[in-house]
């Protein structure tokens, strides 16, 4: 979820006209009655029969322990016309009895923290409290941020439904899409979207309240928003336009927010929502953890389903591919047809709605990108300790289950309609079984879960601080996460959590997961901060600051890209002491900051208005940002047939890639030419699912590329209206000279990602065969076998990223001409005499004055041809 941002202008309310529906926001100041339907254009119902909202509007009613009393500050009251059954559901939520406490705190303090277990109703209810208390109007709305796109979409739908309002009023905005209108009063969005809005309007004048949800997840952008909002709240107070900030967290560990003097000089009040959690019995595995945790999950689900009383099962796995594999396996083991089969003795459940089985076409479980945020002694309990002995390893494959199992996948990239299925009750008599990644840990609460099966693992992206090499690794979750997962079992009645690891292993888990900002490169964060004129990023009040090392690395990259002034230069210009960590932003940097992509790619875009390269550069950058356009075909096959089919598809994709890469000049652009070819060809075919399927492309990824191309085109036009760019989805292939220009643009953007093929003297050692050297790594790196340059192996290349699997592999490889390096990447080269020294240069070997530098090296001393600089 890199560089999340929104092209929000088009979709957002400008000065919206006052809503003209009765009761939209015109409740009398202190008397909440009579409520009117919120729908626009309806007559109020006859006064003799108060609508459900009359009861609905006083949420404490009906909970005996909290008799209603008037709010301390009865602000405007905006009636909501909820359906009675919705209201009944709401009243069961623990947070309802805290409404007064929360709203009083909000009225009295600018910043309030609300902590409550997952499922206590924070996300769905707090925005409604705020709405009812009049914290929104036609020109200032309630904003709610979520770290995950899934949650932003799902929660806006849910809240609209609960309030009986349309999504024109309760809306969402995520990176590529949204349904915000001028009627919008509650806007759910990803945290990146709000960050982009701050760049356009630092005071966020369009909001009366901002709710930062899921603050415990400590996503990078939520952390940055916390720091920024702490300032914005103060600024707004000075201008007498108070802004309220609510921070919502699923855990009580909020010291990073409350004990942080720099962030909040006056610690905000913390309101704890008592959870109505039922006891969950935790069962650890006796044995040491298994490698095959997915298989173990399968066996455990089978046992639970056959042996234990009714109640939904929730399984935690680490990624999309695993989720799909387990879903398939479970569906095979408990086929839907069993319920209908003759002789089936389930007389009480004759009617299974087979359409409700969400069956994904086999093969859709493609690749794993879950770790973005996306990113886990009693042996199964004595009551469950069954002998698996004679069942064999896959004994569960043929269980004698008469009860149908309603198997549903859940992960963040799942289409929203599919995600919504987990919230619906399963077909009558069937047992719900949701196989999820850690999206289900805190962001989404699935009703009716009684059993949790926790593999104890999570997939995380790891970055090497120094080299930037990233790898996805499956690691143990933290204790806090494991407890969150267990908690999912006790929502409606006492439950059980089966942990597929021993209690000793649990004891070794880290207590809390480290905040994301401490785990990844921060060049995008630093660039965005600089664009907000936060020059000394090191002094910014992060809840947990990134390491100085990471900040220095980011600043150095940005200086090299020309986005920040180099310290010498800055010092010369401002005659000030400018340390390495406070370099001001350049014009180029400001331009780059407006593009919603990583700085390296933003640099390419900023340079690309030449030789007619803009549309191609946009397509390449969009394709690189979306990542993994091609289906993952290296996955292990479950059967002989699948293996054959995978092999066939691999061959087909390799052929298609060669065709897209072309020959000669075009092939030198390498994998980026393939991306360009894929985007172009796919658009010619109308971006149809069939075309994608036939060519091994991921349909969803291609749609995302299309959207991002549109968004980048808009962004380029905003910076440079003279470019007069319009998105022509269908591109002619670039000419030969355009390809060369594109290669140079790519080199300019990926200047720190240059690799050079090892020279013959290194080849004594077998491990260096066909290897490349990079300035930052001691180990050999290789061109990935899926690259079209795998057989070409040019001397100099730039790569998109290095991913470590069995070896260090470069992905997204493109060939570079040696003479370009000093010319395009002077900041990465050492010149002798140095570049700063103007004037003619004496060349001792030739005994005369030349305009040439006598020696030039790329970073670690790779000699380059001398270059003319004058
Ligand atoms: O944010 P928090 O974890 O505190 O709770 P929430 O997301 O507001 O969820 C409150 C309740 O609404 C849970 O019991 C969910 O199961 C339920 N819910 C639902 O039934 N359907 C949805 N689409 C979303 C939430
Ligand atoms: Mg929530």
Automatic annotation (TrEMBL):
Residues 1-72, 357-401 are annotated as: Disordered. GO terms for cellular component: nucleolus. One of its GO terms (molecular function) is RNA binding. Residues 2-17, 364-394 have a biased composition (Acidic residues). GO terms for biological process: maturation of SSU-rRNA from tricistronic rRNA transcript (SSU-rRNA, 5.8S rRNA, LSU-rRNA). It comes from the Eukaryota. This is DEAH-box helicase 37. It comes from Sciurus vulgaris (Eurasian red squirrel). The chain holds residues 143 to 1012 of 1113 of the full protein.
């Amino acid at each position: 979820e890199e560089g999340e941002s929104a092209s929000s202008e088009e979709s957002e309310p400008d000065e919206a006209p006052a809503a003209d529906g009765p009761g939209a926001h015109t409740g009398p100041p202190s008397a909440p009655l009579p409520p009117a339907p919120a729908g626009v254009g309806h007559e109020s119902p006859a006064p003799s029969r108060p609508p459900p909202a009359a009861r609905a509007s006083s949420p404490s009613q009906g909970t005996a322990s909290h008799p209603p009393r008037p709010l301390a500050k009865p602000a405007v009251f905006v009636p909501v016309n909820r359906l009675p059954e919705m209201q009944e559901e709401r009243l069961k939520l623990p947070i309802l009895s805290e409404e007064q406490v929360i709203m009083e705190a909000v009225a009295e303090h600018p910043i309030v923290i609300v902590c409550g277990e997952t499922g206590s109703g924070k996300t769905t209810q707090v925005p409604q409290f705020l709405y009812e208390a009049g914290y929104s109007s036609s020109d200032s709305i309630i904003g709610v941020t979520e770290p995950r796109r899934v949650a932003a979409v799902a929660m806006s739908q849910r809240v609209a439904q609960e309030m009986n309002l349309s999504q024109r009023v309760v809306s969402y905005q995520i990176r590529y899409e949204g349904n915000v209108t001028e009627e919008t009063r509650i806007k759910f969005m990803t945290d990146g979207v709000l960050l982009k809005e701050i760049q356009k309007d630092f005071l966020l004048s369009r909001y009366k309240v901002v709710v930062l949800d899921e603050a415990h997840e400590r996503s990078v952008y939520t952390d940055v928003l916390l720091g920024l909002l702490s300032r914005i709240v103060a600024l707004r107070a000075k201008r007498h336009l108070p802004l309220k900030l609510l921070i919502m967290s699923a855990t009580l560990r909020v010291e990073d927010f409350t004990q942080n003097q720099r962030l909040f000089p006056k610690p905000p009040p913390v309101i704890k929502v008592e959870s109505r959690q039922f006891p969950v019995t935790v069962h650890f595995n006796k044995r040491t953890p298994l490698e095959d945790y997915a298989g173990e999950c399968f066996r455990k689900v089978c046992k639970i389903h056959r042996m234990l009383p009714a109640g939904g099962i929730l399984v935690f796995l680490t990624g999309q591919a695993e989720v799909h594999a387990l879903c398939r396996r479970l569906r095979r083991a408990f086929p839907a047809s069993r319920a209908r089969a003759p002789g089936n003795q389930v007389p009480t459940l004759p009617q299974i709605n087979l359409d409700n089985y969400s069956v994904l076409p086999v093969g859709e479980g493609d690749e794993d990108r879950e770790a973005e945020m996306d990113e886990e002694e009693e042996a199964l309990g004595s009551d469950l300790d069954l002998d698996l002995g004679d069942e064999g390893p896959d004994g569960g494959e043929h269980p004698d289950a008469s009860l149908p199992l309603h198997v549903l996948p859940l992960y963040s990239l799942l289409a929203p309609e599919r995600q919504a299925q987990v919230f619906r009750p399963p077909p009558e008599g069937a047992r719900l079984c949701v196989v999820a990644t850690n999206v289900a840990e805190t962001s989404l609460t699935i009703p009716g879960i009684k059993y949790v099966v926790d593999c104890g693992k999570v997939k995380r992206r790891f970055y090497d601080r120094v080299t930037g090499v990233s790898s996805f690794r499956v690691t143990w979750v933290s204790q806090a996460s494991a407890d969150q997962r267990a908690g999912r079992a006790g929502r409606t009645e006492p439950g059980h959590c089966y942990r597929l690891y021993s209690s000793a292993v649990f004891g070794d888990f880290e207590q809390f997961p480290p905040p994301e900002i401490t785990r990844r490169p921060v060049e995008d964060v630093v660039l965005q901060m600089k664009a907000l004129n936060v020059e000394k990023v090191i002094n910014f009040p992060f809840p947990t600051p990134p390491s100085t090392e990471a900040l220095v690395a980011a600043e150095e990259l940005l200086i090299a890209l020309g986005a920040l002034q180099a310290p010498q230069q800055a010092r010369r210009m401002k005659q000030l002491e400018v340390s390495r960590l406070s370099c001001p932003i350049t014009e180029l940097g400001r331009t780059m900051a407006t593009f919603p992509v990583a700085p390296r790619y933003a640099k390419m875009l900023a340079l690309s208005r030449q030789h007619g390269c803009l549309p191609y550069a946009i397509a390449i950058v969009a394709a690189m940002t979306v990542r993994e356009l091609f289906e993952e075909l290296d996955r292990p096959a479950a059967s002989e047939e699948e293996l054959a089919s995978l092999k066939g598809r691999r061959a087909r994709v390799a052929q298609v890639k060669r065709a897209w890469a072309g020959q000669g000049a075009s092939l030198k652009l390498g994998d980026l030419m393939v991306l360009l070819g894929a985007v172009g060809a796919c658009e010619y075919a109308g971006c149809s699912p069939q075309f994608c399927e036939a060519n091994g492309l991921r349909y969803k990824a291609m749609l995302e590329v299309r959207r991002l191309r549109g968004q980048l085109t808009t962004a380029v036009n905003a910076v440079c209206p003279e470019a007069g760019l319009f998105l022509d989805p269908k591109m002619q292939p670039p000419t030969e000279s355009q390809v060369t220009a594109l290669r140079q643009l790519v080199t300019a953007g990926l200047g720190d990602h240059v690799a050079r093929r090892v020279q013959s003297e290194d080849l004594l050692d077998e491990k260096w065969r066909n290897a490349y050297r990079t300035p930052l790594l001691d180990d050999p790196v290789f061109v990935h076998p899926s690259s079209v340059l795998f057989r070409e192996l040019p001397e100099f290349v730039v790569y998109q990223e290095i991913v470590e699997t069995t070896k260090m592999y470069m992905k997204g490889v493109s060939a570079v001409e040696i003479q370009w390096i000093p010319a395009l990447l002077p900041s990465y080269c050492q010149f002798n005499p140095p570049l700063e020294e103007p004037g003619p240069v004496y060349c001792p070997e030739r005994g005369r004055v030349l305009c040439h530098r006598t020696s030039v090296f790329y970073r670690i001393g790779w000699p380059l041809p001398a270059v003319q600089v004058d």
